[in-house]
C-alpha cells in the first residue's frame, strides 16, 4: 500500500508564520495543472504497482481548485494506479473558500471523502497575528457547513504556543473544537521560522516567544482535553477518534512508499528520497521541456535507522525491537537497548513486549530523546545494509 501527495502551492495571501513553498501567482494554476498531469505520467512506475490507499491534495491551498480540476487529477491517478477500495482522499482547505455551494459540489461530485480545514484558531486576535484570510466566525461556519454538505470525516488544524496566547485561551479553542462534529485534530506548536514575517517581528522585539513552561502546559492541556473528549493522541501533533487516524500521514510514519507530485513535493520509496524543485515556473518549464525537475538522496542504513526512530517514536505505535534487530542488525539492537535504559528509568519511555514508546513526558522532550538515540553518519557502529 502507498500514498500519493499532490502539492497545490498557491495562496491568495501569505501567512505570517509560513515557510512552506507557495506562490501568490494564481494565474499559473492552469499551466501548473497541466504539468502535474504530465508528472503523474512521467513517474507512473515510481510506486511499482503498489495499491494506493490514500491521496492527499495539500498546500498551499487546494481549495482554490474547482471541482473539475479536482476530478481531473483524481481521474488521472486512477488511470495510472490501482486505487484500493475505501481509499482516503483528502482535500486541504482554507475556511474562507468553503461556501456551502463549494462544499456540496466537492462532497457530491468528486471522490474526496475527507476534508482538512486550516482553522488555526477560533480567536480573531490570533488569526490577525497569523495573517490568515478568515475570521473566527468563518472558521466556525466552515466546519458546520462541511458537516451539512455531507462530510463525515472532518479534520481541523489548530496552532498553540502563539505569542500572547495563554493556557485559558488555548483551552477555549480546544473546548470549541471538540464541541463540533470533527473526527480528527492536528495541533501544532508555533514554530518561528527564519525568513517569515513573524521571525522579523520577534527579531525587532515586537513579539515575545512563548516560554517553555507555558508551551508545556498547553501541550498537556491538548493531551488531557483530547482524551477527555474521546480522542486518541496517536502522534505528537495529531489526535483522532477511533477509526479516524489520518491514513495518509500514518503511511509516512509507518514508512510506506509515497509519491509526491508538484513543486517542492517529496517522494519516498524506502531506498531513496526525492524532492521536486521549489519553484512553480521552473517546475512547469522543466516538466514541459523534459529537463530534470527533482533531486534524489539514497538512504543508507544509518539514514534509514535514524528515520525509523524519528517517525516511530513520535507515534503511539512506538519503535519495534524486532524491526530494529532484523532491519539494522544485532549491534544496533543492543546499542538501542543500552541507550534506552536511562530513558525508561526516568519515565520518558515505556516498553510493552517488543514495543518501546515515549510516554507523555517523553513526548515533551521527544526531539532531545530521539536525537540522542540517532547514529552519526560516521558512527563507529556498523549498521548492516
Ligand atoms: S495558506 Fe498555508 S501554505 Fe498558504 S501561506 Fe498560509 S500557511 Fe502557508
Q: Which labels suit this protein?
A:
385 residues, 15 helices, alpha/beta, TIM Barrel, binds iron/sulfur cluster, Arc Repressor Mutant, subunit A
Can you tell me about this structure?
With 385 residues, the protein is α/β, with parallel strands linked by helices. It has 2 domains: 2-252, Aldolase class I (TIM Barrel), CATH 3.20.20; 301-373, Orthogonal Bundle (Arc Repressor Mutant, subunit A), CATH 1.10.10. The chain is 42% helix and 21% strand. It has 15 helices and 15 strands. It has helices at residues 29-42, 67-80, 100-109, 124-129, 136-149, 167-179, 197-203, 212-228, 247-253, 280-289, 301-312, 321-328, 330-345, 360-364, 366-373; strands spanning 2-8, 52-59, 83-93, 114-120, 154-160, 184-189, 232-235, 238-240, 257-261, 266-268, 272-276, 294-298, 319-320, 349-352, 355-358. The strands form 3 sheets. It has a 9-stranded mixed sheet, with helices on both faces. Helix 3 links the parallel strand 3 and strand 4 (114-120). The chain starts with a strand and ends in a 12-residue tail after the last helix. The mean pLDDT is 95. The site of iron/sulfur cluster (SF4) has 10 residues, from loops. Iron/sulfur cluster (SF4) binds at residues 11, 14-15, 18, 20, 22, 59-61, 94.
Number of domains: 2
Strand order in space, largest sheet = 7-8-6-5-4-3-2-1-9
Bound molecules: iron/sulfur cluster
The major beta sheet can be summarized as: 9 strands, mixed
Fourth-tier CATH superfamily name of the largest domain: Aldolase class I
Return Rg in Å. 21 Å
Helical residues, percent: 40-55%
Amino acid at each position: 500500500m502507498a500514498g500519493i501527495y499532490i502539492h497545490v502551492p498557491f495562496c491568495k495571501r501569505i501567512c505570517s508564520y509560513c515557510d512552506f513553498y507557495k506562490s501568490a501567482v494564481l494565474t499559473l494554476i492552469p499551466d501548473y495543472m497541466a504539468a502535474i498531469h504530465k508528472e503523474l505520467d512521467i513517474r507512473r512506475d515510481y510506486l511499482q504497482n503498489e495499491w494506493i490507499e490514500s491521496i492527499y491534495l495539500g498546500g498551499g491551498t487546494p481549495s482554490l481548485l474547482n471541482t473539475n480540476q479536482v476530478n481531473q487529477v483524481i481521474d488521472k491517478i486512477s488511470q495510472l494506479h490501482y486505487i484500493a477500495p475505501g481509499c482516503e482522499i483528502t482535500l486541504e482547505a482554507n475556511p474562507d473558500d468553503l461556501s456551502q455551494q463549494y462544499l456540496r459540489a466537492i462532497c457530491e461530485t468528486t471522490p474526496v471523502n475527507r476534508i482538512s480545514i486550516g482553522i488555526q484558531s477560533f480567536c480573531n486576535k490570533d488569526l490577525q497575528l497569523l495573517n490568515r484570510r478568515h475570521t473566527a466566525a468563518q472558521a466556525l461556519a466552515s466546519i458546520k457547513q462541511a458537516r451539512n454538505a455531507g462530510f463525515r470525516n472532518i479534520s481541523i488544524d489548530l496552532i498553540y504556543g502563539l505569542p500572547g496566547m495563554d493556557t485559558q485561551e488555548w483551552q477555549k479553542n480546544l473546548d470549541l473544537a471538540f464541541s463540533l462534529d470533527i473526527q480528527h485534530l492536528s495541533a501544532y506548536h508555533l514554530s518561528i521560522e527564519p525568513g517569515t514575517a513573524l521571525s522579523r517581528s520577534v527579531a525587532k522585539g515586537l513579539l515575545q516567544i512563548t516560554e517553555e513552561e507555558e508551551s508545556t502546559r498547553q501541550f498537556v492541556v491538548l493531551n488531557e482535553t483530547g482524551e477527555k473528549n474521546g480522542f486518541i493522541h496517536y502522534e505528537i501533533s495529531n489526535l483522532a477518534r477511533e477509526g479516524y487516524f489520518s491514513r495518509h500521514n500514518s503511511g509516512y510514519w509507518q514508512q510506506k512508499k509515497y509519491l509526491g507530485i508538484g513543486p517542492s513535493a517529496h517522494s519516498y520509496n524506502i531506498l531513496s528520497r526525492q524532492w521536486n524543485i521549489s519553484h512553480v515556473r521552473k517546475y512547469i518549464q522543466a516538466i514541459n521541456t523534459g529537463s530534470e525537475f527533482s533531486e534524489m538522496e539514497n538512504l543508507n542504513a544509518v539514514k534509514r535507522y535514524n528515520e525509523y526512530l524519528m517517525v516511530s517514536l513520535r507515534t503511539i505505535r512506538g519503535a519495534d525491537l524486532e524491526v530494529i534487530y532484523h532491519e539494522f542488525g544485532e549491534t544496533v539492537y543492543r546499542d538501542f537497548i543500552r541507550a534506552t535504559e536511562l530513558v525508561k528509568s526516568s519515565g520518558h519511555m515505556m516498553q510493552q513486549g517488543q514495543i518501546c514508546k515515549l510516554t507523555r513526558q517523553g513526548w515533551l522532550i521527544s526531539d532531545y530523546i530521539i536525537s540522542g538515540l540517532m547514529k552519526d553518519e560516521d558512527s563507529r557502529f556498523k549498521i548492516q545494509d
